[in-house]
Amino acid sequence: MIIARGDNVRSFTISPLVAGLATAVGTMLMVGYVGATAYLVLRDDIIQSSAERQAQMQLSYEDRIASLRSRIDQLTSRRVLERRSIEEQLADVVERQRDLDTRQARVSGILAKAAENGIRVAVGGPVPPAKPAAPAVALGSLDAPTGIGGTPEPIEISPVLSLRGTKADYNAAAEAAARQGAAAPGKPLRDLAPEAAASQPQAPANPPAPDQRVELIDNVNAALDRMDGEAHAALDVIAVTAERDAATIADTADELGLQLAGVKADLASGQGGPFVPLAGSDFDSRIERAEKALLALSQVKDAARGIPLASPVPGAELSSSFGPRVDPFLGRMAMHTGLDFRATTGVTIRAPAPGKVIFAGRNGGYGRSVEIRHPSGVVTRFAHMSRVSVSEGDTVSTGDPLGAVGSTGRSTGPHLHYEVRVNDRPLNPIRFLRAGEKIATLLDD
């Protein structure tokens, strides 16, 4: 490095190391100066920006904390509401179970009454078999050569009878419903799918989680609904079946010219109309209808049992029918007032219905004979007996022995002459026997 001032000239030699150090020191001083100047100028902006960032972060944290607290409050409130809801639902289920217990007790009573009347609603297993049909009365040959007799009577017969001894209370709506129940009389009822009726659902001893509780309550409610529906279905089936059976018995009595008290004679035989699904009705009205129908059926059955519908000599064939025939002794046309049952001497004669013996002994051409007055007012006569086992004034039940077949009196051989009389006028007994075959399964409980 050369420095000249006027005539004075000076020269210096600087080593690279010194030059580098000097440059570095100068640079450092310059950077420090510039940095200090920038700090002094920008310090306030930096501090303010930092403070704003911290304030924003704090607000964000506070908002997040408030949101979490709100969520916690919502969850807590929901849990409280769910707990209350579950408790209320459990209380409802318990109340429904108590109500269903009461209903089931009433339905059980109705089922017992229905069983007493021969109506059995299946509560498990397959459908029960139908009742065995009553033995048929064999008409046999009308021109059989043995065992005929009897006394001649006028041919003109016009019987009119009102059956006594019943207080059945019927109405047209019940009769129509019975007819619309449309199944053959005496057949068993359908199984009502009772798997839920065998036992009621019970709550577990250890309470499960809330979600499981809700599912359990739903299952219990579904089971209770199913059981309630089965009870309603059973009541409907019992009511319709009882009404139908009672109408069948009444119709059969009408065919015999008998009128059961309390049952209208003009029961409509035609059916039809649009299909209308069965709407849900009140339980009390259902059970009231079933009770009324069972009471009416019981009363109609009691009245019908007073009609002589059974054969006095079960399984025996007929040797002579009711109506005009050639008299076996005189050879002229005469009225045969009964049926002649072909049987050997000593075969037991049985009462065709309950009643009171109003005659027992010899009676002219009838020989040894018995007469019974039944609760319906119908009188049955049994003639040509070889032996009489009852006395006047005795009370007999259906199937009780009255004596034995014989050939006493105006008779050509051993047989039973059987008559059915109303107001001392004879009716055709075969109509009563066929009616008995028709409703035998309804009268047998």
Automatic annotation (TrEMBL):
The species this protein was found in: Stappia indica
Domain of life assignment: Bacteria
TM region positions: 12-42
Pfam families in the cross-refs: Peptidase_M23 (PF01551)
Domain M23ase beta-sheet core residue range list: 335-429
Alphabetical list of InterPro entries matching this protein: Cell_wall_metabolism_enzyme, Dup_hybrid_motif, M23ase_b-sheet_dom
Compositionally biased spans, kind Low complexity: 194-203
Residue ranges, annotated region (Disordered): 179-212, 392-411
Identification of the protein by name: Murein DD-endopeptidase MepM and murein hydrolase activator NlpD, contain LysM domain
Keywords noted in UniProt: Hydrolase, Membrane, Metal-binding, Metalloprotease, Protease, Transmembrane, Transmembrane helix, Zinc
GO molecular function: metal ion binding; metalloendopeptidase activity
GO biological process: proteolysis
Signal peptide positions on this chain: none
Cofactor(s) the record lists: Zn(2+)
